[in-house]
Please model this.
Amino acid sequence: MNHLLLIMNLGSTSTKVAIYKNKECLHQDTIRHDKDTAFRALNDIWEQYDFRKNVITDFVHQCKYKLSDFNYIISRGAPVKAMNSGTYRINEAMVNDAKSRLYGNHPCGVGCAIALDLADELNIIALTVDAPCIDEFIPQSRYTGWKDVYRKSFYQALNQKAVGRKLANELNRDYNDLNAVIVHMGGGMSIAAHHKGKVEDVNNGLDGDGPMAPERAGTLPAGEVLKYAYSGKYTYEQLYKMINGKGGLFSLLGTTDCKEIEQMIADGDKNAKEIYDAMIYQIAKSIGSAAITLKGEVDAIAFTGGLAYSEYIVNEISEWCSFIAPIHLFPGENEIESLAEGALSAISGELSIQNYK
Model:
């Protein structure tokens, strides 16, 4: 049976949309909004609902389809309550939890709302796959030194899990019998310890944990953060933006474009090199930390995400940590493809469609 899927992945300044017929991608595009005046006038991500929905429906019409042609609507997962790995039906409870912002605030929440509304209009099902709040932590991974403050499992789970399966296939292994450190390197970073099919520990880059990234600050000295918080100079929203959005390389070098930074280094900018190498060093330290979670029994290290295309980054990290395990490359995020694969596995009955409560 043929299934026509409309797939959406909302990022901070872009909307990725694709049309799949079963496993075949018929149309795909990344619509960027960072220079769109109407988009930049929207101060909150939930104010973007109509703008994003129009972008998606315009894409459908430009591809000569009607919304009624689709059998399923698929969106990348939202920050909501802890979930199991797999495919879920997007429902009102999930969207309400995304809107509450209690579990985080990300444009993918808006994507889930759009997917559910379109599906309801068409009387079809909306699905999401491997949401960022998958929680497979071991107890030791949760604790901090403050009572009632716990580390949360929140990361690029969709790509992490897809790469885990690809890595296992490349090694002729079963993902559920593999120990790997998978390193997602993009605007944010997630370095995860995959132990026999479960991510037992991973940094939460969204909230300022782990290495700095192009737009995220990473782990900060808590005392210094308190000084900023009580200085009276910043609102909560401004401080959070300094952690997630305007932190990391943006704060230190004024850009998140790693190609631009590598050109600065090639042109002899010693400050840019020192800062860039510091980010690489922090990534390598996080890989070592993940290896500890696996008790040193690491079958492979995998690099993925957009920055895995950078020979400079890959080579420099390898200098620090190739002694731990062989390194494999899966550059790019491939999230649209992963959404299609996960949805089709559930639609076919190979995996179950789970219900969010």
Q: What stands out?
A: The radius of gyration is 20 Å. Residues 270-293 form the longest helix (24 residues).
